[in-house]
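Researcher: Here's a chain I'd like modeled. Treat it as a single chain, no partners, no ligands.
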Amino acid sequence: MASHAGELVIGLSHLREARPRLADASLSAALARAEAATGRRGSAACLLAAVRGTALWAQDRRDEAESLLAYRLDVVERASPPEVVAMMFVTLARIAF
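Model: Modeled as a single isolated chain. Structure tokens:
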């Protein structure tokens, strides 16, 4: 997971700067590597997916965000910093309505 920390910070920085396309671009490759290494529900993959899901939502790619975040909330709650947990909850709430 430590190897993905830098990519996570870059993605979060792009989101804070209101640049979701750049966040998505920087996180998509990192997420693919994390999923290949640890599986879809690995802690690194779920952490990156939570942030990328928010970036997808901000680009109005709602269906992609929903499928990306599906069945990952429990892992994110256990293995992520509070900011990422809150980010995922907000995105899932937006998806629900």
